[in-house]
Structures are given as structure tokens and as C-alpha cells.
């Protein structure tokens, strides 16, 4: 049954609305506003909607400013932030040189290359930051691989996300690396300011929407939070989530539906863990299918030719992973989108947690050119990309329901 009034334009309008709410970090005003908007939309579709509230330590940024040789550079704190205090840290900038056994870093701000996208508690870079702090460094500027050259911020991982670094650490864009390395070689003066509110018991909330019919269920999840506006990372998943809820409510047959929108994604998937531990989920045996609308669905494939240009088709950096029994239905539904050919295999992100709990699932994860950067705006997706994915999802779910 096709979704009435389905259009890429309407889906894209939801992406824009989501992005315009602000930066979606967990428990921020924008995140709470997003949760209320999603709950209202589920209620309008006929679902019984409410919230699962939970608490966490959170840092609410007021200022994150970096100046090197009187030039302002875009930066963002590595989580969990260590604030500088009301006054900036001012010191010469020096370059960390891996081949040197001893470093002259005392009372300096140190520029470091992170070779990995994700800085975890066990990573060499985490040990490096702590080592520099012990040697007397005042702060660290880090840059890591980024397709766009923008500031790239990796997700934090619990309980790592709840522990501050020993000194202020901020990330800068890879596009700044040459000018910053040159400045560091001159021991140019730098000033770093990171201020904000460190709240021990901030409240976050997930959205829970139920449409009860029979004893079997389909579960649909999407993360709602992220570091920045997340228009391409989160926006398509949220838009598809809302339209699939309307589609489910209009079906004249089928199971009960449980729609879950989770905060805490960028902090070790904290919101999903809350749902899995406290959400009173139906057991795996009662769930026909769990669909996870993860990162970067229906975002553009980009190439660089002096400027960034749109290409026809969806980014090949997105994966559609499925339990084996759903592969035939998904192959038929997504046949016109070769970059989304479904596969079995290892998942990442929140989908991994769902599969580990034994639920029969399929879903998306991946990245795009502006993934996890401040530049991830609505232009990273488009109506012509969103509409065919929505049609394929409704066709897949209808086939799964009829063949159950």
C-alpha cells in the first residue's frame, strides 16, 4: 500500500525543520525541542506517544574559540570537555613530533595529528593527550582525517564520555593543518577559550510511540541527537521515521508498531541502552522485524573538482545490513538503488546493539562527505534521494508483514 501524499519534497521539509532546531547534542534545548516535535507528530498519526526520561552528566557549551596569530579558527571540544575557565589559555603553539623521544611542551599549546577518526579510551591518542598533560602542556589542538576538511568530531563512548580530559582539548579542521603547522614551527602565540555549564544530572529523553493491534510487533528506531545540525546524518532518518509512522497508522492490516526515537547517540548510544534496559520492549520472539533508520540515509555522493558538486545517486558510504530472512524482500525493493544493495554481516552503531539482543533486523549506517562536521546542512540530501528510499522501505515492510 503506497503512502498517501508521499513526496520527497515533504520528507525534505522535515529534514529542514529538524536542522533548523539547532545543534542536536543530547539534553540541549534543541534536543528536547526535537523530542517534543517527534512526539507531537506521532500523536497526530494516531500513536500513543510519551517519553523515557534519563539523566547524564553533560557539558553545555557557551564558547569555544581559538585564535592563532590574531586569526580566528573554527574548533570544537573533544568530549568530555575540560573548560579553560573564564580567561583563555594563552601560550606558544608547538608541533608534536612523533619521532622525537622528548618534547618541549611544558607551558605550551600542542598541535597533534590524530590518525584515527575515533579517539577512544584505549586509543594511542587518548594516551598521548594524558601524557602531554603530565609533561606540562596547557592544551591540545587535534586534527583528524576528514573528507571535507571541516572540523570532524568523533562519537564519545561511555563511560569515557563522562570523564573530562586532564587539559582542554579541541578539534580543528584538517583544512587548517598546513597553516597551523607553519604557525607551530614559528611558536606563534595561540589563545584558546572553552567555557560552558557542566551539569551532573542533565535530563535527556527518548520518544516512545505505540500503536497497538495484535500481539506481534514491528519496531522502528532512529537516533535523534548528534554533535551539530546533523541534517544529512540524522535528518533523513528522522523524516523517514515520521512518514513511516503515518504509513503504519493507515495500514488496514498488520501487527502492532513501536516507534522509538533515541537521544544520546553521540555519547556511546546512551539513549538506545536506556531503551534496551528500561524500555519494556517486546521480546525478540514477538517482533517480526526491527527497522533501524541510522546515519546518512539518502545523502549525496560528492566529488571534488575545485568545488563540491552533487552527483546523481546516493552516497556509497552507506550500508544496508539485514538479518538473512529479509534479504529477498529488500533486494526487490531496493533494486533501483545499487548503492543500497542489502547485505548480511557486521553492523555498526545502534543497529549492532539491536542485533546483539537477538532481534531480526535491518537498517542503515554509514557516513557522507560532511558527516560529523558543522557543515552538515540540508544540502547534503535532496527530495529526489529521499522519495525512492521511502518507497522502498514501505514496499519492504509490506512484504515482510504479508509473508510473516
Order of helices and strands: HHEEEEEHEEHEEHEHEEEEHHEH
- By DSSP, the count of extended strands is 15
Q: Number of DSSP helices?
A: 9
First-last Cα distance: 16 Å
| Parts with pLDDT < 50 across at least 5 consecutive residues | none
Written account of the structure:
The chain has 404 residues and is α/β, with parallel strands linked by helices. 27% of the residues lie in helices and 28% in strands. It contains nine helices and 15 strands. Strands 1, 2, 3, 4, 5, 6, 7, 8, 9, 10, 11, 14 and 15 form a 13-stranded mixed β-sheet that branches. Strands 12-13 form a two-stranded antiparallel sheet. α1 (8-20) crosses α9 and α5 (235-250) crosses α9 (383-402). The chain is elongated and about 70 Å long. The mean pLDDT is 92.
Keywords:
404 residues, alpha/beta, 13-stranded mixed sheet, 15 strands, 27% helix, 28% strand, elongated
